[in-house]
Design a protein that fits this description.
Layout lengths: L7 H11 L4 H8 L3 H8 L7 H11 L10 H20 L12 H16 L3 H20 L6 H20 L3 H18 L2 H18 L2 H14 L6 H20 L3 H15 L5 E3 L2 E3 L1 H15 L5 H9 L8 H17 L3 H14 L1 H5 L2 H13 L4 H10 L4
Antiparallel strand pairs: 1-2
Helix pairs in contact: 2-3, 2-4, 5-7, 6-7, 6-8, 7-8, 8-9, 8-10, 9-10, 10-11, 10-12, 11-12, 12-13, 12-14, 13-14, 14-15, 14-16, 16-17, 16-19, 17-19, 19-20
Length: 391
């Protein structure tokens, strides 16, 4: 479907300048004619979805950042959910079709993980359903289940789950997570088991079953590989981070503090990095300190403000994690009677990861509260509230 002219040319030109590319360089990278790009940038023609996808891929950004109508981005993601559901429904009897060599499959799954960490949901929704079907074919093509393929299946399912969960398709998310657990059985990888246990917590968040979610994580921690090497340390530390947050949601201050202290101890032993699809290290633990404080409620938000006074997430952290920091900081600031600061934090979150921010329930709630308070610039606040469909 063609995208309306309004604004998309300016957005492309802006992101091209940020990437320090000439029009010819971007056109070459996107495999389109430079004349086409020039017309789009000056608003003389629109851009179909295929061209938008190609330009976004060349710029290494999510297509939602180029679309003139951000609602169109959300609609594209939601329209892709039935296809994702169909792909996993046939996990045990996939259709016939081609299967790429393992190096190419690894590259495709790694790319999907990069999109997940960067909150690039349009790209995940557009590409991962077909990738999952291909991986299911690869898994069933071998006489015995290949552990390497099973690991790729679990990773691709996690990328798909990020879209389902963020867009409120919680039943689909639960099915994806159960398939991740099925793939883990074939992979026979304890580190991957921990990563799936981390992801499974989403089902407890969605059901508001915080106590049971904490129990599930504590069982996973007990079963985790002993922390005697970097991957195992990171896997266990990530579980403690997650446990601290869900304990906070459950109002269990002692458990939240204990798990956060353990996550901090383990985080100090490894460099900040992405381990089996999960970011962990000292910076990630610091972000979770803010998350835990907000989860515990308004009486504890001063801890979040203390973290933010002396520290900000570095740009090398995944976009979703950085934007989450500012979303939760905004809630702490709002509860502390700092509405102007809260609005600034929400704007930073939007700049880092617009799709993640736009579809976050807390953003809609807090933007609605800010608009009612009328404590920030009326025009910009109203525009922001309309952008995220504030409640």
């Amino acid at each position: 479907m063609p995208t309306a002219h309004g604004g998309i040319g300016r957005r492309i030109a802006y992101h091209r300048s940020v990437a320090r590319l000439t029009q010819q360089q971007l056109a070459d990278a996107a495999t389109i004619h430079v004349g086409t790009l020039r017309k789009i940038e000056r608003g003389a023609r629109g851009a179909g979805d295929g061209i938008v996808e190609a330009i976004a891929a060349a710029l290494d950004i999510d297509p939602s950042m180029l679309l003139a109508d951000r609602e169109h981005a959300s609609s594209r993601v939601r329209a892709a959910l039935p296809g994702l559901s169909a792909a996993i429904a046939a996990y045990d009897l996939p259709d016939d079709g081609p299967v790429r060599p393992m190096p190419e499959l690894r590259q495709a799954v790694a790319q999907a993980t990069t999109w997940r960490l960067g909150s690039q949901y349009v790209r995940i929704a557009g590409h991962v359903p077909a990738l999952l079907s291909e991986l299911f074919r690869a898994l069933h093509a071998t006489p015995a289940t290949d552990p390497d393929v099973a690991r790729l299946v679990a990773s691709a399912l996690r990328s798909a789950d990020s879209v389902a969960f963020k867009f409120g398709a919680h039943d689909l998310s639960a099915r994806l997570i159960e398939l991740m657990r099925w793939a883990c059985t074939a992979a026979d990888d304890p580190i991957l088991d921990s990563a799936v246990a981390y992801t499974r917590t989403e089902t407890f968040f969605a059901a508001h079953a915080y106590g049971r979610g904490l129990r599930a994580l504590e069982i996973a921690i007990d079963a985790a590989t002993p922390p005697d090497a970097v991957p195992a340390i990171a896997a266990r530390g990530a579980l403690h981070m997650r446990a601290a947050v869900i304990a906070g949601r459950d109002g269990d201050v002692d458990a939240a503090d204990m798990h956060l202290a353990e996550a901090r101890r383990l985080g100090d032993q490894v460099p900040e990095a992405v381990y089996v699809g999960t970011a962990f290290g000292p910076h990630s633990v610091r972000i979770h300190e803010v998350s835990v404080a907000v989860s515990l409620g308004s009486e504890h938000v001063h801890r979040a403000l203390e973290v933010a006074r002396e520290w900000a997430p570095p740009p090398e952290l995944p976009a979703e994690r950085r934007s989450g920091f500012y979303i939760e900081l905004a809630r702490a600031q709002l509860w502390s009677g700092l509405p102007d600061d809260a609005f600034e934090s929400l704007k930073v979150a939007r700049k880092i990861a617009p799709q993640h921010t736009r579809d976050h329930r807390w953003v809609r709630e807090d933007a609605g509260t800010l608009r009612r308070l009328k404590r920030a610039d009326a025009e910009s606040l109203t525009s922001f509230a309309e952008w995220c469909h504030a409640t």
